[in-house]
Amino acid sequence: MMLDDYGTLSISRASFAHNVTFYRNLLPPKAEISAVVKANAYGHGLPQMIELLVQNNIRWCSVFSVHEAVEVLQKDRSMNVHVLCPLSFQAGAFSMDIPGIWRQILTLDAEKRIYLTIQSVRDAEQLNSLAQTMGREMRVHVQTDVGLTRQGCTADLLPALLHAVSSLPHIKLSGVFAHFSHGEIPNSDVTARQYDLFNKLSGPLRSQGIMAHIHNSGGTHRTLPMDVDLVRLGIGLYGLQPSLEYPNNALQPVAELTAPVLAIHTRPAGTGVGYGHQFVTARLSRLAIIPVGYGDGYRRELGGRAVVEIAQHPFPVVGRVSMDQIVVDVTDGRVHEGDTATLISSNPRSHISMDHLAQICRTIGYEMATGLGARLVRQLN
């Protein structure tokens, strides 16, 4: 039997359901969860995540772009999809021609489940023109900036934007939202101020039935008032830490990366291994070849610093990480071709958990996860 020449990213249904239950227990009964599935569901696989959302009765998701929204609706047309990135148009951009992506939306979104984001009067007017050309109404969420200083109109400009939206016949205000800048920090004064400002801005709208949302994974399980309509959960749903400095031990990572041992080579002492020979054997050594590399998101910084687990025993990654392969020194164990190696563990306390490997690389779990490559086979377990 031919061995697989790729890695497998296994996604745990049980761990995902555990994380959903953890967050739901924090929320008032009527609050909705919007699962953030941008960037291929944080590298975990959009098709797999959409299936899990449906299984766990999550009917909202958040994406970055209109193109990602179309991908979601191609998987499940019953999902409510919020596009986080504010639309940006050139003045006078639309006449009778409808760009291709919007034609797809016309085809896929008959029930008007896509909610677009706007942050300026000009872009609201341009979207209204596009909606008129398409012969449909567009639902929008207005983004305001309460301190992240990234996207969204400032508080002083919000009234004029809301007035403009209310006067435009082809767009409908459905929500208002903002982003925390310090949501993962417990009892943050900055977060408290941002929350208070957002409540002042959104309160009158909520009384009119307009949805308001600001909470992210970190902000949801910190000590904040939880009078919310919707929370946007990204990293926490995947079981990774919003902040390693302030860990949440209730979360369970949903992903585990494994790959087969393709070959084992016996080499004498003094043998250089990999590009640049950064590792040289000090003894007669058995070297295992595993078909995962930086092209799959297993980062170069892990060469000579990380281990993999085979039959629950750790073995060091030696030499440089290549694009497609790593070399593991298995001299001190009974390892055979075809054995399964675990490169990223779903055990949050493991020395090869996603978050721990991110620390080795001096980055965060978000970057490790979203860097997981397209070649990996993603499967639900």
Q: Biggest sheet, strands in spatial order? A: 11-14-17-16-15-18-10-1-19
CATH architecture of the largest domain: Alpha-Beta Barrel
Distance between the termini: 23 Å
Task: Could you tell me the CATH topology label of the largest domain.
Answer: TIM Barrel
Poorly predicted residue ranges: none
Q: Number of helix segments? A: 11
Main sheet characteristics = 9 strands, mixed
CATH superfamily assignment of the largest domain?
A: Alanine racemase
What percentage of amino acids are in beta strands?
15-25%
The CATH class of the largest domain, by name, is: Alpha Beta
Q: Estimate nothing, just give the exact number of structural domains.
A: 2
Oligomer, anyone?
Answer: single chain
Give the ordered list of helices and strands.
EHEHHEHEHEHEHEHEHEEEEEEEEEEHHE
Structural class based on helices, strands and sheet pairing: alpha/beta
Mean pLDDT over all positions: 92
Specify Rg, calculated over alpha carbons: 24 Å
Task: Give a quick precis of the structure.
The protein has about 375 residues and is an alpha/beta fold. The chain is built from 11 helices and 19 strands.
Can you describe this structure?
There is one protein chain. The protein has 2 domains: 13-233, TIM Barrel; 255-380, Lyase, Ornithine Decarboxylase, Chain A, domain 1, CATH 2.40.37. With 381 residues, it is of the alpha/beta class. The chain has a 9-stranded mixed sheet. An 8-stranded parallel sheet has the order 8-7-6-5-4-3-2-9. A two-stranded antiparallel ribbon has the order 12-13. It is built from 11 helices and 19 strands. The two termini are 23 Å apart.
